Amino acid sequence: MRNYLFKTALFACAFLAFNASFAQSKLIKNLATGKHQTLVTYGTSLTAAEGGRAWVDSVNKALNRKYNGLLTTLNAAKSGMWSTWGVQHLEDSVIKKAPDAVLIEFAMNDAFSDYKTNVDVARLNLNYMIDRIKLYNPDCEVILQTMNIPLNEHGQTRPNILAYYQMYREVARARKLLLIDHYPHWKELLDKGKDAYMKAVPDGIHPGVEGSKQIIAPYIIKRLEDK
Fold first, then answer.
1. 159-182: pLDDT as tens digits
2. 73 contacts 60 by C-beta, under 8 angstroms
3. What rounded mean pLDDT belongs to the chain?
4. 4 found inside a domain
5. pLDDT tens digits, one per residue of 14-62
6. Is there a domain that residue 215 lies in?
7. Most exposed of 17, 19, 53, 217 (fewest Cβ within 10 Å)?
8. Residue 5 falls within a domain, yes or no?
């Protein structure tokens, strides 16, 4: 038990140190100096569906209120898609939009067993997207996100979701990218009970509009603005 507690504490310290190691995002620095910025959000239905659109819109409105309307946010995510689709459609969906920053989340559907995309393939796809974006513009900021916890049948078809989230953390660390790790907040909510969690994530996988506005959007803004 003592060994378990030590390991838990060590993980918590490492997690906090990792998240504290990143300075304020380049996106925010540029907005603060009066430069117009284009942000592209890219990923699954967690970004494309109703709840996804809610957090994207909330982030866009909050930053434009603070930074004098200098941000254009384009949502290029698509429901049901995963990183292989992300690679295949990167040119039209992201590169042609000439972004200054790209926010990526594909782990939820990479973990979907029917898509047969193991963690190594998902890592290759993610690194390809980062490389291609940086080839287009070395100054383009790539930001990675882990998302919420799938439950019920959605969890059963994503038995290794935590391994995919860990891969995102490892890629962010290795490439010195900003990581917005939503998982701990959703785990904290789930620990309060499944009923509490399902109020925010009614179908067990997609956060609703209110959950997206109250949990996802504020944390994205906080991480972007952290100094």
1. 999 999 999 999 999 999 999 999
2. yes
3. 92
4. no
5. 444 344 445 589 999 999 999 999 999 999 999 999 999 999 999 999 9
6. yes
7. 17
8. no
Give the CATH number of the domain where residue 215 resides: 3.40.50.1110
224 token code pair: 């972007």
Q: Identify the domain containing residue 80 by its residue range.
A: 23-225
pLDDT band at 227 (very low <50, low <70, confident <90, very high): confident
Q: 101-105 and 37-43 as β-strands: parallel, antiparallel, unpaired?
A: parallel
The domain tally of the chain equals 1
DSSP string, the chain: -HHHHHHHHHHHHHHHHHHHT--S-HHHHHHHTT--EEEEEEESHHHHSHHHHHHHHHHHHHHHHHTTT-EEEEE---TT--HHHHHHTHHHHTGGG--SEEEEE-HHHHT-GGG---HHHHHHHHHHHHHHHHHH-TT-EEEEEE-----HHHHHT-TTHHHHHHHHHHHHHHHT-EEEE-HHHHHHHHHT-HHHHHHHSTTSSS--HHHIIIIIHHHHHHHHH--
d(CA 80, CA 52): 13
Residue 9 has pLDDT above 60, yes or no: no
Up-side HSE of residue 115: CA atoms within 13 Å toward CB? Answer: 22
pLDDT band, very low/low/confident/very high, at 138 (cuts 50, 70, 90):
very high
Which tokens go with 59?
């982030």
